[in-house]
Amino acid sequence: MASAPPAPAPAHTAGPSLVDTLFQRSLDDLVKSLRADPSAAGESAAVARALSEIHREIRTPDAATKAVALQKLTYLSSLHFAPVASHPLAFPAIELLASPSLPHKRLAYLAASLSLHPASLSLLPLATHQLHKDLSPSASTATAHRHVSALALQLLGSPAAATAPDLAVHLAHDLVPHLSRGSPRAIAAAARVIAGSPSAAVPILFKPLAACLASPDPRASTAAAAAFCDLSAPPADAAPFLPLAPDLYNLLTTSRSNWALIKVLKLFARLAPLESRLAGRIVDPICQLLTHSSAMSLTFECIRTVLTALPAHDGAVRLAIGKAKELLAAADDPNLRYLGLLALGMLGPAYAMTVNDCRDVIAQSLGDADTNIRREALYLMRGMIDENNIVAIAAMLVSHAAKSDPEFANDVLGAVLAVCGRNVYELVADFDWYASLLADMARTLHCAQGDEIGRQLVDVGLRVRDARPELVSSARSLLIDPALLGNHFLFPVLSAAAWISGEYVDFTKDPLELVEALLQPRTSLLPMSVRAVYIHAVFKVLTFCFSVYVEKLGDSSKEVDVVFNELVIDQTVRGESKVALGSAEEQDIRASTVRKDPFSHASILYMINLIKTTVGPLVECNEVEVQERARSLIGFVHLIRDIQELNERKVADDDKQSRVNELVKTMRTIFCQELGPVSVIAQMKVASPEGLDLNENLAELTDIVSEDDTAPSTSIFFYPRSRDSVQTRDEPALSIGLSSLSEHRKRHGLFYLPTGKTEDEPSDYPHANDTLPSCSNETVSDDELKTVEPVFAGKKSKATKSRPKVVKLDGEDFLSSMIATTNILKEDPLSGALRGVLSGRDAKTSSAQRASDVNSEGMLNKMGTNESSSQQIENLGNHPTSSSRTSTQQNRDKKKGTNPPESDVKELRKHRSSGRSGHRQGKHKHRERSSTQPDIPPQAPVIQDFLL
Amino acid sequence: MIQAVMVISTQAKPRLLKFYNFQSPEKHQDIVRGVFQLLSARPDSVSNFVEVDGIFGPGTKMVYKHLATLYFVFVFDSSENELAMLDLIQVFVETLDKCFKNVCELDIVFNFNKLHTILDEMILGGQVIETSSEQIMKSVEEIGRLEKQSSTTSLIPKSISDRFSR
Q1: Residues 6+ apart with CB under 8 A from A448
Q2: Is the CB of A339 inside 8 Å of chain B's CB atoms?
Q3: Which of A17, A221, A449, A575 could serve as a FRET partner for A36 with CA atoms 20 to 30 Å apart?
Q4: Domains of chain B and CATH, by start
Q5: Which chain B residue has the Cα nearest residue A332?
């Protein structure tokens, strides 16, 4: 039967033949044929064959054949992802919905609920009538009717149908009798319909749904609680559900169903932040549940509710923390441990100490086999870090990263970098430690955080003077390790290390070794951009060595003719070079090290030869950056070639020596100016030059320009080219540059601004490099720089070392303004509809003009017509009206024509005192309500009366 | 609400897929693949929860149970309790076990419609409507009886009535 005879072509077009019907394959046959050849190709062939067969069968007038075809198609589209678009599934399904045979009907409903597509919704009106019929009471037996209506409800709750507004409009009324019977199915379907098309469904369905909440049938109340929980879920606004609080409270205290309690707790967790008095009211019942419940799901929900919604109730929080720790201690159940960590993660900073108590358990969880547990543990660890324990925890985390799998290792490293770098290293007090930690992180196996580590290395170098010696030695350790050169993740780190070694060469203990490291053969593995940095670093180191050497030469020639070409350590000379170095720390180490003098003539010659052999070939390099730097380096070496002769001829040629001196000194001054961090808003501080009206012709560019300027970057911007060129530092050259600049600007007018940025800077904004060398923070900080130290002064008592200055640009206000999120309140259609509809206007106008005078008082009004919660309304008569209320009221006055006199408050109170027990006396209340209705109370008092 | 219920075999074949939030059919295959990748990467004896923001949107989690050759997966959002969902999987599996008398993967492969019937008795539109496996069993049996009644009065090929007889 698997191979049904292929129908002849004419029959195919004319429709299914009798043979097809007789030998139709059932779904079981289809499944068997699909399983016959499990290979992907075999399966797709079988699917294709089945589809063509179904295509034929589904057009038959015979209902039975059609039903089987539909069933097969549903199966294929659901589990074999058969493209249904070419086989319109919806139409035959809707045809069969009307079948008198229950199996056919079921098939049709299943097909429709599984595969109705918003695109096929145009077909849905065809089904509306059938759904209406199936939902209405029929002549058939009670059980049959129940099943048929269950099918219809199922379809109404299916994702595609729930979004069809027409369906909601036409069928919402049919749902009402089912809701008043308290059918969980109808409640669930109503929730979907309301969520899908609030404006149409809320006026009809909300009241009966709210009534279910107070139903004596636990199935109905549970389903209703679940429905409201779903409707109030973010991003929806929970405020319109506040008036349900009394019924929910009732459920909370009386329900025995864990499902219902969980949903009620979730609802309260959303409502409590909206109404301050609610928390005090629910805290006791929740604590009772917490202590007495044996169900873990309920316990966890209580913990979550307390920790997220009742943070002010210390007793409850302590109880919840205790329970959370119990979860954490569940050795054999990873689920509970995970949830325990999750619960601790909900604790605010006020309870940081409590989390700290569990540090050992959490640290242990970092090594758990479960990625969930590890991630939560890391999150907690991250939150635990403060300025006192940062050294211990960061070191622990980094050592942990070394043992973890690559992905988690990088999560850990990323977390450490983020925490330490937060807000310009506010937690880091000991930057020597941090510099070596950064180097350690870079060396961690699997480290893929090179970009951030490199950025922070440079950033610390720029911002923290005191950290530079340690940074340089960390950089050295990274540079001399040939193994690191093969790891492409570390290229940014190596680039930063090379830059640091070049920029802060004064702190280098051994420039010769540094040059060797920077020029080692494996540097050919580096990308060109990094090689360029390496070569430039060599340039700086070389300049530094020359200047020390030349200085030494000058000094010594004045005194004695000391022999320079000896490779021994000459203490007197060394002493002088130390002065040049100017670092006290350097001195100690230098004195203790016995190594050849890097500033001796031999060393200089060696360096020059090394550079000539290794950098020489790069002059021909294809990459311009590398080529340019190689050329400038080689050119410099060539310029001062005379230096080689200085020693041999001793003091013979004064002319040459002075020329070399001159050259070396000039080069040295180029590099000895300190680079500072650049403010991200530096461009804003540039005053526009006279005669340039930025707003006139560039109006259309404002967007682009402002975007550029405020880009929230924490990184530092370098303009490497400007550092290279001597002109930017040279005063006369600068002025020449400026004059030509303004000429150029005159000629090119409009196009100038974007490219003119960097050239503008030196004139108006104090150059970043100028700000620091003077180093008196007072002068620096008054305008564009702020040093942030005092903040920490108080806390530093424990730290053995005082925290060095950290240069911080861009005041907090700026940063916070960057962070400030545009918290646009989205107009939520559901709550909008709830409010609009419930404020007494009829359904049509409500959907059109709600929103403006949104007020949840409408909700109360609505609740007033609801038996279960009617009594809350009654005492509300005379409360002061809010401003928004007046508009609502006027609105209503117009509509109703009359404004009934306000009810007698006392009478109402009396009524209320009869309590909840009387709340089912229908008619009397209804009358009462109709009189109170027009006086719509603001929401707060309702809760108050209930709560107090 | 519950966003989806899936049963996926350890061979990455979907055995039951039901989405309660609309997912375009073209994406179903990718979703199954993504979920299976997450599941198969997890060793045994670790927690049963996985965050699936990447597949089902922010705040969604998935809870699963690995039984024999099948993964039973429920995807849910912040309106559901994690452990309650784990219990619900248990209810579902228990019900299957009762309906099929020691359920195995083949039962699930060959009973596409019945599986949906059971699931629909338990969850509607992403809301849990019944949590007692006895009650679900009862309803499913009743449906079976009703269909039998109905099918005896109509002319239906034997293959179909067979399938609904149990």
Answers
A1: A406, A410, A489
A2: yes
A3: A17
A4: 2-164 (3.30.450.60)
A5: B45
